[in-house]
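User: Could you check the structure of this?
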Amino acid sequence: MKTYLLADGLPASRIAYGCMQLSRAWDASPVTADERRQAQRLVETALAGGITLFDHADIYARGKSEQIFGDVLRTSPALRDRMVLQSKCGIRFADDPSGTPGRYDFSHAHIVASVDGSLSRLGVDHLDVLLLHRPDALVEPEEVARAFDDLHASGKVRHFGVSNHTPAQIDLLRRYVRQPLVANQVEVSLLHHHLIDDGVVANTTGHAYASAAGTLDYCRLHDLRVQAWSPLAGGKLAATSEFADPVVRGTSLLLRQLAEAKNVAPEAIQLAWLLRHPAGIQPIVGTTDPVRLAACCAADGVTLSREEWYALFTAARGTRVP
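Assistant: Sure, the predicted structure tokens are below.
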């Protein structure tokens, strides 16, 4: 699989694997043997398909997804050298501790403690990349900068980035942190195309910029890798019945036509649509079906023409471009 340069000296596969669903039990139940076996197969399938970047978060399944992945590494330690490990922090649960609200926390203490927890669960001595998961309304960028300095100096985190951040929020952080921010992980897919549509509808009647306007162009200007979470739109484009939403149905049918013509699965066409964008979008695929994961990896070998790209864009918009 072809790679992107995520940071200096850090190449990473163009398609990443998202580890959120390695456990789907977001409770205190113990990790099961079946979960470990499934994770082992998924990791092996991803690596066989050329995937090197594995995306985590401290909250996924309340830490169990990282724990399960760590169990895979403890069984096969040599796999670590073939991976770029990325995790995220900053979201806190409503019941952590009991009686407190769901919230975001970019305090020095929370960021450092979250990384220590991730390293322990994963069984590794460092993260290649740490992302701040969702913007904290109470962020004090000096606190973030101090946490990044401490984590970088200790060798616990090599590179840093953000997730779901707007250009202004990134600029605020960049004013204080000394390390380059290397990525912004945002939701982008054929059905969630707002960040792409943003530049198309500029200066047209009936449209106004949202707070995240210009995010993709900003990331291109400042060398932040755009990582796309939910790049397959949660499987919604698998719907082709007459009762499906007309836009979804039309987009799905076009996907299948292109997939048949290019001898790949429709999922590969969805990902190829993102890969075709010049922002260098890096889809993070989270399927737990090894067959589907292998089919997704084939997207790296698919090239869409401008006409094919815009045909899909038009279908997903439900109307022609202005």
